[in-house]
Write a structure and sequence with these properties.
Chain A has 103 residues and is an alpha+beta fold. Helices cover 32% and strands 9% of the residues of chain A. In chain A, strand 2 and strand 3 form a beta hairpin. The longest helix of chain A is centred in the middle third of the chain and has 18 residues. The chains are: A alpha+beta (103), B alpha+beta (508), C alpha/beta (518). At the A-C interface, helix 1, helix 2 and strand 3 of A face helix 11, helix 12, helix 13, helix 14 and helix 15 of C.
Amino acid sequence: MPDASAEITVADVQHLAGLARIALEPGEIEHLAGELNQIVDSVRKVQEVATPDVPATSHPLPLVNVLRADEVGAVLTQQQVLSGAPDAFDGRFRVPAILGEEQ
Amino acid sequence: MAGASAKDVLMDYDEALERFEPVLGFEVHVELSTATKMFSAAPNPAAHGADSSVPNSMVAPVDMGLPGALPLVNAQAVRYSISLGLALGCSIAPSSRFARKNYFYPDLGKNYQISQYDEPIAFEGSVEVELEDGVTWTVPIERAHMEEDAGKLTHVGGSTGRIQGADHSLVDYNRAGVPLVEIVTKPIYGTEHRAPEIGKAYVATIRDIVRSLGISEARMDRGNLRCDANVSIRPRGQARLGTRTETKNVNSLRSVERAVRYEIQRQAAILAAGGSIVQETRHWHEDTGTTSAGRPKSDADDYRYFPEPDLLPVQPSPELIEELRAALPESPVAFRKRLQADYGFTDSEFRDIVNAGVLAELEATVAKGAAPAQARKWWLGEILRIANARGVDAGTLVSPIHVSELIALVENGDLTDRLARQVLEGVVAGEGSPEQVVAARSLKVVSDDSALIAAIDTALASQPDVLQKIKDGKVQAAGAVIGAVMKAMRGQADAARVRELVLERAQA
Amino acid sequence: MSDLIHWTAAELAGHLAAGDVSSVEATRAHLDRIAEVEPDVHAFLHVAGEAAMARAAEIDRLRAAGEAPSPLAGVPVAIKDVLCTADMPSTAASKILEGWIPPYDATPVARLRAAGLIPLGKTNMDEFAMGSSTEYSAYGPTRNPWDLTRIPGGSGGGSAAAVAAFEAPVALGSDTGGSIRQPASVTGSVGVKPTYGGVSRYGAIALASSLDQVGPVSRTVLDAGLIHDVIGGYDPNDATSLKDEWPSMAEAARRGAAQGSLDGVRVGVVKQLNGEGFQEGVRARFAESLERMAAAGAEIVEVEAPHFEYAISAYYLILPAEASSNLAKYDSVRFGLRVDPGRSTTEQVMSVSRERGFGPEVKRRIILGTYALSAGYYDAYYGSAQQVRTLVQRDFTAAFEQADVLVSPSTPTTAFRFGEKVDDPLAMYLNDVTTIPANLAGVPGMSLPIGLAPEDGLPVGLQIMAPAREDARLYRVGATLEALQDAEWGAPLLSRAPELGRPVPVPGFGTEPDGGTR
C-alpha cells in the first residue's frame, strides 16, 4: 500500500510520465516533482472532511438509465475516419512497430 | 519471438496430477450481436450477417476517440447482458456503472476502455456443465460485466504476422466498440485430472447459453467468443494457491482443453525442477499446441479505473429483470434432455454429438428440415472427419443451412452419397451453397431416363455377348453394362435405376 | 456604421428585422473591427472571413424571402476553440491539434448555425481550457481590452475579450471551473455557466467531463439569455443532457429589466466567498452591489457554506484525474501532431508527440491526475475529492433553503498582469476559488460587471448562483441589477473601456480577415 503522505520523488514522476505516455525531459521531471509536492500538499486538504459516512458524488446531477435504442445511425465514411491521420495505408491507420502486447 | 515455447519441458500428465493440484479460472469475452455498437450507433460487425471487410467503414466518432465525441449506452446490449447474467444464475445489480480502464494501445481509440469495474451488471452465479460421460460439474461465476471491444491490428513486415519483428502495424477501428460481456469465473477447485475436459465443457456451455439466448453469433473462430484460461497448480497439501498464468488466444473448444493440459504439464515440470512460475500472460499457439510467454504482470498494469463521467449508472427495474428472466430459454442441460427425446437418439448416440461439439449445428440443421438421423450422420461423419483432419471445430467448416440443403438433395435423389461428399468438399472450400457447387461442378445425378437409355443401348450394342447372357437370365452379367454406363455418366447416375433400365432394355 | 459593432445582439437583431442593416454589413463591420484590433487583443485563433460573409449573404437572402431561421439570424458570433466546427480548425489552443478540422459541429455550434447566426471565427483560450489567463495558449495570449498589459482571464479569455473589444456581439465559452465567469469578470462582460446538463457537451473538446459546461458570453444579460435559449435544451447525443423543458432565459432577462425591482428576492451572501484574500476594490464594489440590490427590495442574508474552502482542493484532483484520461486520445495515431524521432516504436512516437504537443500546464495536470488515480492513491485523493463534492452539494442545498440566489465577487481580484502567476501554479489555481463550487455541484452561475475597482480602474464582476435547473433566476436578477446600474451610470460599463485600434491594421500578426489561421 503506497503512503499517500510520502514525498513525490523524481522516480515517481518518471513512473507517472510512463503511465501517461509523455517523454518528459529530465529537467522537466525534476521541476514537476517539486511542483507536484506543493500542489499535492495543498489538495490533500480534502482528506480532512472525507469521512467514511460521506458518500462519493461522481455526477453533479443524479441521472440514471440514459440509454440509446439499438438503431443504426450516422457513421463516418472511411475518408472522414482517415482525414486527420498522420499516416495511413490501405484504408487503415499506420503506426510504427509496437513494442508492447495487447492487454 | 518471445518465450521459448518449443523448448518448454513438460511433465507427464498423470505424474503432474499425482504431485500437483490444478486450479482453473476462465475469462470469456462474448461479442453481442446487437445491431449497433456498445456506445455508438455505428453498425456492429458482430451482428448477424454484418460485413466488416472494408476497414474503418463502421466507425462513429466515439469509436475512434475523436475529440468532442460522447458515448451512449446501447439499451439492447444492456438487456442482452442482463439475460446472460440471469442465464448464468447471477444476481443482477440494482445499480451498476461504467468505469474507464486507462492504458495506451493503438487499437484503443480513446486510450481507455469503457468497462465495468467495482459495480458490474451481474455477479455471483454458477453454471452446470455436462462432461463427456454425462457427469455434471458446477462452475462458480464471479461476475459478468459489460465493456467494449478494441480495434484490430495487422502487423506488417514480420515473418509471421505477429507483433514481434513487425516493421509497422495497421489499425482498423471497425471492431472498436463492439459490445462485449466478460464472464469471469471464481477459482475452480477439485477438477483434478478432468481439468482440461471441464475447461472445454465450461466454454462449450457458455457458447451454448449465448446461442440459445440468441445474443451472439458465438463463433470462436471469428472471435465472437474468446477465452482466456487461468491455470495454476499447487503441490498436494499446500493451502496457498500457486502463481497463475493467463493463456490468451484460445480460440477453439479443442484449444481450451489442450491449453489447460499444456499449462499443467509445463508448470509441473518447472516446479518439480525447483523453479517458480512467473505471473504472466501466455499465448496459445494452435499450430504447435504450445503456449509462449507474453507480457509479465507488472506496475504497468495500473489501469487507474475511475467512474466513467460521460455515462450514468444503469439501474434495471425489477420488472425488466423479471421480464427477461421469464423469457430465458431452458438451460443447456434441460434443452439437451428434451432434444434427445425429440430426436429419438440413444444416450451414447447423443453423447457422441455433444462431445463432438456439434449439437447446436445439428439442431439448426434439423430446424431447417433435415431428418435428425441424417443430420447426425453428416455432422458426425464426413464433416467431423474433415474438421479433425484440419484441427478445427466442425461448426466452422459449413453452416447448418448448407448441410440441410445437402441432405435434401440426397433425399430427392439429386445426389448420391458419393456425389454429396464431393459437394460438401466444395462448400467447405468456399465455393458457395450446395446448389451452387452442384451447378458449378455439374455434379447432379442424371435422372433423365432417355439419357440413361441412350447410354445403355450404346453399351449393350458394344457388348453383344453380355446382352445375350442377360437375355439368358444371367442377370449378374448386367454388372459390366452398369459399370460402363456409370462411367459414361461420369458417376452422376443412380446405379439402382441404371440396373433397372439395363434389365428392361435387354429384354426389349 | 461604427455604431453597428456597439449594438448588442438584441439591438442588432432588431435592426436586421427592421431591414435598416443587413447581415452582410454587420458581419463586414465586425470583420473590419477584428482586423483593426486583433494586433492588440489577439482574441481569435482563426477568423472565418469569406465563409462568414458568404453565410451572411445567404441569411440576408433568406430574410428577404421571409425565411429568416430565427430572430437572431444574421447576428455574428465568436466561438471558443474548444468547440468542434466542421469548417474551421478546432485546436483547443494546443499544438497537438494544430490544423485539425473535425467531421462535425458541436451541438451548440450546430444550433447557432441552424438559428442563422454567423460564426466569425474561433477564439483563443488556455490550452485545453487549463488556465485562468490565456497565457497557456500554445498560440500566444489574448490581451485584456481594458489594459493590454493584463490578462483577459481564462480559459475563455478570447471569447470574453472579443465581446469586450466589440469584435463580436456574443460568443460561446465553456466553463469547467470558471472559464466563462472569470474572464467575463475581468473584461467587464457577461458570462453564464448553465446548469450541468443544460447545454449539450457533444462536440466540446473535453477537459473534465463531469464539470464542463458550454455557455454564452456577451455584453448584456439579455444577449446571454438569447444565446442560452438557442444553444440550450436536451440533446440525445450527450448522456448527461437534461430532458427538462426550459423557460426562455431571454424572457426572464426582459422581465427582470422591466421590473426594476427585487422585491421578495432573497439574496444569500456566501460568507466563505468574500473577505480575506479579496482585493479591496473588489470588496467595495461587491458591497455597493449588495446595497443596490437591497435598495431595490432584495432581502440580503448571509449564508454559510463551510465546505467551499475544500472545493478548490477537490477540484484540482477531480479535474486533473478526468483530464488525464480525456487527453489520452491525443496520441498521434488517428489525428493531430505526430513527432517521429526516427527508428522508433509506437510507444516512443506517442510519448515524444505528447511531450512536444502539450504545453507545461497540460503536462502538469495530466501527471497530477495520473497520480491521483494511480494504484493505492485513488481513495486518498480522487475518492476523497468525490466525497467533498457531496459536501459542497449539501452546502448549496442548505444555502438555497435560505436564499433564492447566492452571490459573491466573481473573482478575488481584478485582471492581473501577464507573467504575474504563470510560474506559480497554486497562485493561478486560487483565481478559481469563487467559481469552482458551482461546477462541483452542477449549479448555474453568472458573472456580470458591477463597476471598476477604484485602485486600478479595472472591471469587477458579481457572481450570481441559483439552484440546479433554475438558470432563469440568474437572468431575472442579473437583468434587474444591470438595468439599475445602467440607469445610474447612464451607460453600460464597457463604454468606459479605453479606445482600441489603430488606423491601419498591421498585417501578418494575429489574424487575417480573409480567413487565415495563425
